[in-house]
Amino acid sequence: MTRLALLLMAGLSAVAAAEPTPPVPPPLSLPRVSGPIVVDGDLSDPGWKGAAVVDTFFETVFGDNRMPSVTTVAWLAYDDRYLYIAVRCDDPDARKIRAPYVDRDQVIGTDDNVAIFLDTRNDRRSAQEFRVSPRGIQADAVLNDANGNEDFSPDFYYDTAARITDQGWQAEVRIPLSSLRYPRADPQKWGIIIWRNYPRDFRYAIYSSPQPRGANCLVCLSRELTGLTALPSSTHLVVAPYASAQDVAQADAPGQPLGHGRTDKRAGLDVKWNPSASTALDATINPDFSQVEADVAQIAVNNRFALFFPEKRPFFLEGVDLFDTPIQAVYTRTITSPRWGGRSTGKFGASSYTVLVTQDRGGGSVVLPGPTGSDLAPQDFSSVVGIARVRRDFGRSFLGLLYTGRENEGAGHNHVGGPDGQWRPNDKDVLAAQLLVSDTTTPNRPDLVPAWNGRTLTSHALETSWRHSTRGLDWTARYRDFGDGFRADEGFVPQVGYREGSLNPGYKFFPKGLFSFVGAFLNLEYAADRRGELLTRQLDPGILLLGRRNLQANVQLQLRRERTADELLSFTRLSYVVQIDPSRRFTRVGVSGLAGQDVDVLNVRVGRGFSVTAFATLRPTDHLTLDGNSAVSWLNVGRRVAPSVAVTGSSRLFTAQVQRLKATYNFNPRMFLRLIGQYVSTRRDPSLYVVEVPRRSGDFSGSALFSYRLNWQTALFVGYGDERALDERERLARTERQVFVKLSYAFQR
Fold first, then answer.
1. CA distance to 173, 182, 285, per residue, from 232 (Å)
2. Does pTM top 0.90 for this prediction?
3. What distances in angstroms separate CA 195 from CA 350, 413, 578, 623, one per listed residue?
4. DSSP characters over 94-121
5. CA of residue 524 relative to chain centroid, distance
6. What percent helix, strand, coil does the chain show, rounded to 5?
7. What is the pLDDT of residues 656-695, one digit of tens each?
8. Given 2.60.40.1190, 2.30.110.10, 3.40.50.300, 3.50.30.20, which CATH number is that of 23-228?
9. Burial of 187 (0-12, 13-18, 19+ CB in 10 A)
């Protein structure tokens, strides 16, 4: 009997009989503060006397809504300007508290923290998340129940302070009412969930509301807050100007002397005005994103489709949950270099909306999608971009409408629009659908790409899904239909011209011991082009394990047949992801990758290869964090002597690697120094390719950044960058040097 079978049998025998899930606690009435509260981590202020108390919590991981092994108590109150929340987290051994100094939004599951989820719209659909660590460090996000996404890109103004004590740790959170989005109503009814992350032998999740195993939502289980009366609808204005200077020196070729550096001086402005608690108006002039950390490099060799990178720029992140639809028709990183922009986001009654208009200088890339792969074309022109989205809620279900448009300089446009919706008939099923129609006239720029010849394309995209979730059985059925001429230039849709059906059943076990969760699953997929010819057929059985030290392991056998160019190729490989959080100093280590057969996309054949990405986070002290990432991929193929004929044996087609090390020293919650070194290289055997390729390529980028931030918009940045590439002697020679400084300040009224 295999180890997998023994493991599954052990899991089945260890599953206790399911007990009824406790009900969500009754509504909690919030009082106004009875005295002053100073946000300093000291809970003895007079204002906490008489505050509403939350002292019933449920351990949902590792336990099944059982009483937690540690005590958590929260207090809540409000006044005319703020919502106040205090939390006391008792700990039997305070020395084991994981509380490193990290940057904002880096308070994650490896460390102790508390998160407050506030559903101020009371629609049980999405929530603003306010997180605090034992050091008082903040992390904020938007949680979208429609798909379970927790997006840490948005930022909100709020104040935090925390203290570590002999009995554990405690924190105070003060949230300006102007940072919240609530409708015009009196009295108000909100939803709240308080979550404590307690990582020890297991990563324990402790909630103020029970979480049934198999539930398809989180915000829907919020406890109701009542008693909120006479809340202000007054305006809130934030004006955040910035000034920056950047000196860049470049070489004509690797190893050549750097040319005289040019100094680029820039100034810009971000404005946010909340005329009411339910409406936000944003404007930006000449925005600057130099403070955003460079993307982690990805191996870009032997890929069929374009790579995805997340959005990090503040202007695009208001109401980000409204852009989250089944088809990713909005991907704001397609707006490469905005000159100006304006945006309105709000809610009226049961309807929410956002409208965005901006001018893009261009300079990025446009994805050219196809049924078996995608290409990139240079966006060597400016354009005006508009995006609009409205959503109407009906209980926990909704209907929505989306429009995106881009008018290019000179000629060419792309307009996309259509409805979407989600229906939740019960607590087990979620049905979702989206239909989009696109009208496109390509730029008349055959000098950039032959397909851009001014032609007109009109087509559609359809996606439907049905997700069913219970304590044991889960399954998702999905159908997609994308026309050949569908284009979403403001989205991320790298594949078109296909019909696809998929079914993903799975079954969950909850043993006790080394593993707290065992899930067996199967991914079935069939895709064909518009003529009915097979594109992809896959049968992927797998297993997911969760266990001690936040162990997460996902192993999947991939049995696939895919069309590459005009050939159908079959291959079998193993996909794996394993990570664990060993200790408070060695906080995370893991590996992921593929092993077995894979397709040589460019030369259209099957080879054998291996890819592995190893990552680790080490904290020698509470102030210093070291993040390492090493990715290596290679593929061996037969040496082709004639079409469809290969000799016995194999040779190395390519070896690609990415090595990245980031060191961050956080002096305190507001100030850090960050150093990053990243090396990307590829070795190829040109004799194995049907087109000309370089034998070796590689580049190195290094950067240093000093940051001091009072809040997310009041900040000083000073940075240095160094770029190098392989020269003719295969030495890393300097190609560019950058020095920059930026100062921004947020004026609030």
1. 19, 10, 30
2. no
3. 27, 46, 25, 25
4. GGG-------TT---TTS-EEEEEEETT
5. 26
6. 5, 55, 40
7. 999 999 999 999 989 999 999 999 999 999 999 988 999 9
8. 2.60.40.1190
9. exposed
